[in-house]
Amino acid sequence: MLKEKAKVLFNKKAGPSYFRIGLTCHNGYAKAKPGQFIMVHLADQKNSILPRPFSIHRLIIANGRLQGIELLFKVVGGCTEKLSRCKKGDCLDILGPLGKGFIIPDKYQRIFIVSGGIGVAPLFFLASSLLKKIPDRSTCELFIGGRSKHDILCTDDFSKLDITISIATDDGTLGKKGLVTNLLEKGIKENPPDFICACGPVAMLGSVARIAKKYAVPCQVSIETIMACGIGACLGCAVKGLDKYMHACVDGPVFDATVLKIW
After folding, report:
1. Among 45-59, 113-127, 183-197, where is mean pLDDT lowest?
2. What kind of fold does domain 111-259 have according to CATH?
3. Is pTM, for the whole model, over 0.85?
4. Could you give the C-alpha distances from 8 to 80, 136, 243, in angstroms and in order?
């Protein structure tokens, strides 16, 4: 973990209200785990805006060397709106990598990845990391959902990984009309996975957790919550567990779905 000034490498629109931003970073990010995050503080806004957490979307590698990290974000408020206007060469204060990421034992080879909306942000990093150690790419499947076709992101990137993709949208504008968890349960019935990983809205994660329990499939979820410090000092990201409160920034944001009591 290191606080540093990062330069913007690029900032590109990824869809209506969605952006990809590339940032320089220290070499320690080469050991970052999928599901970990960084805290971003706009360098010229220190007196007005608290830092915000963003999942690491991917590592930027060129010629075998780490060049930076990429974030995928949605404009939902003042901080993300300002972030969307950053230009190449601008500086941001970042702290990271932070939190606990996905931990999947090597014995599990058939993995289902479930995404809802901007929850896809950490899952490309996860999928690309998994496929480095899973010999048969057909055993890794992605279930991606959103309100409409405009909320379905990164499908071209996932397609380049040669993994199976199933899409669901609430309004039926892309893929199957309905909930992505319906596709997940159908996939489990047809050919059950060894493990499930998910990120998205709490309601979706709750449904994924219940389905995983129903079919006795181990499951880890990455939760989205407000954080003020990212290092466990402010205690503002408390999450209710089975027998105690935990904190998303240090105990998570990735949790075993069975230890949470938020759904």
Report:
1. 45-59
2. Rossmann fold (3.40.50)
3. yes
4. 14, 36, 42
pLDDT of residue 179: 97
Residue for token pair 């990093």: 125
pLDDT band at 224 (very low <50, low <70, confident <90, very high): confident
Burial of 46 by CB count in 10 Å (0-12 exposed, 13-18 middle, 19+ buried)? exposed
Residue ranges, CATH 3.40.50.80, the chain: 111-259
- Per-residue pLDDT reduced to its tens digit, 143-163: 999 999 999 999 999 999 999
Architecture of the 2-98 domain: Beta Barrel (2.40)
Q: Would the pLDDT of 253 be above 60?
A: yes
Helices (H), 5-141: 78-84, 123-130
User: Is the four-CA dihedral 80, 85, 87, 92 of positive or negative sign?
Assistant: negative
Q: Residues of CATH 2.40.30.10 domain(s) within the chain?
A: 2-98
Q: How far apart are CA 181 and CA 203, in angstroms?
A: 11
How far is CA 95 from its chain centroid?
A: 17
